[in-house]
Structures are given as structure tokens and as C-alpha cells.
Design goal:
2 domains, DNAb Helicase, Chain A, two-stranded parallel sheet
């Protein structure tokens, strides 16, 4: 892995991308969101420099031509001859996006290899394994965040999707369009929690924010069918969160649950009935480090392991 030639790359794909950009004026519209100059292999002849020049021309509104690229990269007869050969290559408009995805994938693989080498060196010299793991996670998270871009969506497609959803809602007149929170007033204001909503409960300390959130989560788990909830907290332990659930469903003061010898016989039953909370669908992950590893560093594995969709 120390040798540059061992890194994956496709000079054919890179050449096809550059040739397409020289021959088709609109190709950069699709390629530019995917690639940056560093995604081109440094061992390829002038490819990073050529693409950087093309991006400069595109951003300034100039036409991408061989002469304009040579002017930005630097006058060189060999370079100009190479650019002219790119202009003569037979490539279709669709080839640009197809090969750009190959170049993007190869670039990501090379970055992963470099990060792996950095982690190996880090682990060899730092005895603090947890610190090494945190730095490795941070590098992977930054890499995943940098490579995760949303493609632009035409408004016409959004209109079709919205119209289809509205047609479904019309067949359920009087029902909530979202997920019921178990609170009629909140449901009235929000029509239920909608897909992709981010709802923030804000307030001063000890005003019931956590209790309200836990109540909503409990209502979703026990009040709906086949619904699952993930609970994250950076302060409260798993045992305390579960104790709050017991208190909530048993209608018993949480302080009395800490002194079970003062409970009446009829107040002990809910503890047993809540013992299958995991089977019911409520899945808790409380530890700060575990939460970050599962839902941030490995979101796909987290969704699969918890059956959350």
C-alpha cells in the first residue's frame, strides 16, 4: 500500500470523463457535483490539473476548449497534443456521468486505504486504544460526510410525489397524516409527527422536556402497531430510563420505585408487564459512545440491528 501504483484507479474512466467534458457543453452540469480535482489519480497524466482548469472555466461561464484548458494549465506542446486526442475520442454525453461515478468510487477507495494506513500507524504508536478508535471514527465520519451529497431533484418530480401523497390523504379524511404522539393537542397542531421531521423540545432545566419526550416515545410504542423507537440520552442511565417507563405505566411516583418495600402488592405488577419492553418494540441505546458509533459512524448497521425504517 506504500506504493502509489497499488491504489485503485481507472485511467480509461478518467480519460472518458475529460473527453466528454471537452466534447459536450452540458456534461459538466452532471459531473461537477460528483468530482473534485483530487478525485483524479495523481499518477495519471495531467488529469487533476486538466479537470481543475475545466472547473475554473465552468464556474466563470467560459467554454471548455482544449486551448482554454492549456492556457490555464500551462503552455505545453505535449499537453496540447493530449487534449486534442481527448477531443477526438468517441464518447457519448451519457458516458460522462457513467465514468464519473467510476472515478468517484476509485477516489473513495483510495481515501479509505489512506485512512486505514493512518489508523495502523496511529495504533502502532499510541497505547491508548480508545483514543485511536475515536480518531479513526472521526476520519471515517468526515470521509462519509464529504462523499454524501444529495442529487438535485426536479420540481416536477416533487409535484408528482406530493400529488400522490395528497390523493392518499383524501381517502383518510379525519385521520392523522403522521404518527400519533398520544397527545390530542399536539396531534392537532402537527397532524402527527411527519416523516423526516426534526422536532426540538426546548426549555429551562427541570421543566419536563425529557418526561414529555419519553411519554411520546412510550405512546408510539404501546399505542401503535409495529412501531419502534430509539432512545438516546447523554445523561440518564438505561436503568433510570426504564424506571421512568415503569413509573409512567404503573402510575407510581418514581421515588417510590427506588424504595420498593413501601409499594403495595397491586403496584408491583406493571414492573413484570414492562419486562418485555424490548419485544414490544422500544429499543434503548443510552451510552454516549455507543450511540455515536451506532447511529453516526454506522447508520446502516444501526437501522438493520434495530429494525428501524
Amino acid at each position: 500500500m506504500s506504493k502509489e501504483l497499488e491504489f485503485p484507479h481507472s485511467e480509461t474512466a478518467e480519460r472518458a470523463v475529460l473527453a466528454c467534458l471537452l466534447q459536450h457543453d452540458r456534461a459538466m452540469d452532471e459531473v461537477s457535483p460528483l468530482l473534485v480535482p483530487d478525485d483524479f489519480y495523481v499518477g495519471s497524466r495531467w488529469h487533476p490539473e486538466i479537470y481543475e482548469a475545466m472547473q475554473t472555466l465552468y464556474n466563470t461561464g467560459e467554454m471548455i476548449t482544449a486551448a482554454a484548458v492549456e492556457r490555464l494549465v500551462g503552455h505545453d506542446d505535449t499537453l496540447f497534443s493530449y487534449l486534442m486526442r481527448l477531443c477526438e475520442d468517441s464518447v457519448r454525453y451519457d458516458d460522462g456521468l457513467y465514468h464519473a461515478k467510476i472515478v468517484e468510487a476509485d477516489a473513495l477507495r483510495r481515501k479509505l486505504m489512506r485512512h486505514g494506513g493512518e489508523t495502523a500507524q496511529d495504533a502502532a504508536h499510541d497505547p491508548d486504544a480508545k483514543a485511536v478508535l475515536e480518531r479513526a471514527e472521526a476520519r471515517l465520519f468526515a470521509l462519509g460526510k464529504a462523499s454524501g451529497t444529495d442529487d438535485p431533484v426536479p420540481v416536477a418530480d416533487l409535484a408528482v410525489d406530493y400529488q400522490e401523497r395528497y390523493a392518499v390523504l383524501e381517502t383518510h379524511t379525519g385521520e392523522l397524516s403522521g404518527l400519533s404522539t398520544g397527545f390530542d393537542g399536539l396531534n392537532f397542531e402537527t397532524s402527527g409527527f411527519q416523516i423526516s421531521d426534526l422536532i426540538i423540545l426546548a426549555g429551562r432545566p427541570a421543566t419536563g422536556k425529557s418526561s414529555l419526550a419519553l411519554s411520546i416515545a412510550s405512546n408510539v410504542v404501546y399505542g401503535t402497531q409495529d412501531k419502534r423507537v430509539a432512545l438516546f440520552t447523554l445523561e440518564t442511565s438505561k436503568r433510570e430510563v426504564f424506571g421512568r417507563l415503569v413509573s409512567m405505566h404503573a402510575h407510581v411516583d418514581g421515588k417510590r420505585l427506588r424504595t420498593p418495600w413501601v409499594l403495595h402488592e397491586n403496584e408491583k405488577m406493571p414492573c413484570a408487564t414492562l419486562g418485555n419492553a424490548g419485544e414490544t418494540g422500544c429499543w434503548s441505546m443510552i451510552h454516549k459512545r455507543s450511540a455515536r458509533q451506532s447511529c453516526v459512524a454506522k447508520p446502516g448497521d444501526f437501522r438493520q440491528s434495530t429494525d428501524l425504517t
